[in-house]
Design a protein that fits this description.
124 residues; mainly beta; seven-stranded mixed β-sheet; 0% helix
């Protein structure tokens, strides 16, 4: 079992930056593939970024590629999401998730554990 808690959400102006962190208790991230998802009001939850268990491979949604960076994993007990050049459309609740085994990093159904979410609001 692993418990996930997200930190770092808040309000920022468009073009600004935020750094989200996901802390784990129970087991280290070296046992899990890690992902970040987000859900905006009235929309389905969508994939944002993921990092492999080893920390050596990362994946990004096209909408955030070049602006967001995921880091951590590989025996570290935090996984971070650095978000730069934020846009109003990035406004959502952001969730950290952990998976024992994954075929498709972008599908939320493959993840076993979820955090409670942290709100990110980008004003125009």
């Amino acid at each position: 079992q692993v418990q996930l808690v997200e930190f770092g959400g808040g309000l920022v102006q468009a073009g600004g930056s935020l750094r989200l962190s996901c802390a784990a208790s129970g087991r280290t991230f070296s046992r899990y593939h890690m992902g970040w998802f987000r859900q905006a009001p009235g929309k389905e939850r969508e994939f944002v970024a993921a990092i492999s268990r080893s920390g050596g491979t990362t994946y990004y949604a096209d909408s955030v590629k070049g602006r967001f960076t995921i880091s951590g994993g590989n025996a570290k007990n935090t996984v971070d999401l650095q978000m730069d050049s934020l846009r109003p459309e990035d406004t959502a609740v952001y969730y950290c998730a952990a998976a024992v085994a994954l075929i498709d990093y972008t599908q939320d159904r493959g993840y076993n554990y979820w955090g409670q979410g942290t709100q990110v609001t980008v004003s125009s």
